[in-house]
Design a protein that fits this description.
There is one protein chain. The chain is an alpha+beta fold. It has 2 domains: about 5-110, Orthogonal Bundle (Arc Repressor Mutant, subunit A); about 115-205, no CATH class. The protein has 9 helices and 5 strands, in the order H-H-H-E-H-E-H-H-E-E-E-H-H-H. The chain has helices at about 5-15, 25-30, 35-45, 80-90, 100-110, 110-115, 165-170, 175-190, 190-205, and strands at about 50-55, 95, 120-125, 145-150, 155-160. Helix 1 (about 5-15) packs across helix 3 (about 35-45) and helix 7 crosses helix 8 (about 175-190). The longest helix is centred in the last third of the chain and has 15 residues, at about 175-190. Mean pLDDT is about 85; it is low at about 55-90.
């Protein structure tokens, strides 16, 4: 099993939704994916322990001993009947984010697994430090980065988005947009921009996690 960019995109979308109820149909619609793509992405992200099947988190029936170690619930090797039944019925919230694992993967794995591809100058949707969420954060002078897109309004250095549907999905969801822009700052930003992303992105994904250490920024 190999993670695909859309698997990371799906996981970030679930972070953005928080406690909202969702179905595969809604997930596919808001990310611009097909239902089968959304389903497969959740399955791979669950196998990679970035997501957890909610059916596996239900308390055991009375008289049935619980697992010896809580982390074992994140290692999914078989699919219990109740998980299959929930999936087949289109039940809400079939999976949730494993916040600690996803935050770690975002800064230490995804930035290398999904390496950036620079494109020619283009008009598109601003990303990295150029995204609307960071307006006024950085001093003028930094070149803009954009995802080339027909509905874009900014001209800048082109950057291949994490997934072709990422610009569409970002324009529907401000929090998802912020996380995708921070991820791009990790991939192509200068030292100060990477430093901000290293601090901000894990906190958005895992608010209760350890606070990132301050790092000197050069360049």
């Amino acid at each position: 099993m190999q993670l695909k960019p859309q698997d990371f995109l799906v996981a970030l979308k679930l972070v953005a939704w928080g406690e909202q109820r969702w179905t595969y149909a809604r997930l596919a619609q808001e990310l611009g994916l097909s239902a089968s793509e959304a389903h497969a992405a959740v399955k791979r992200a669950t196998q990679a322990e970035l997501l957890v099947q909610t059916a596996l988190l239900a308390p055991p029936p009375a008289g049935v001993p619980s697992a010896q170690e809580a982390p074992a619930i994140y290692r999914v090797h078989t699919r219990p009947r109740r998980a299959k039944a929930a999936e087949a019925s289109g039940a809400d919230n079939p999976a949730r984010v494993h916040s600690r694992n996803l935050a770690e993967f975002a800064v230490h794995g995804a930035r290398y697994a999904f390496a950036p591809e620079r494109l020619p100058m283009a008009v598109g949707v601003p990303t990295s430090h150029s995204a609307p969420a960071f307006k006024g954060v950085f001093a003028p002078g930094s070149a803009d980065w954009v995802w080339p897109h027909p509905n874009g309004t900014v001209r800048g250095q082109g950057l291949e988005p994490l997934h072709p549907s990422a610009p569409f999905a970002a324009m529907q969801d401000a929090k998802l947009y912020e996380m995708l822009a921070l991820f791009d700052a990790l991939r192509v930003g200068r030292a100060r921009e990477r430093g901000m992303a290293l601090k901000r992105l894990p906190l958005l994904i895992y608010p209760d996690g350890p606070k990132p250490a301050e790092r000197p920024m050069h360049g």
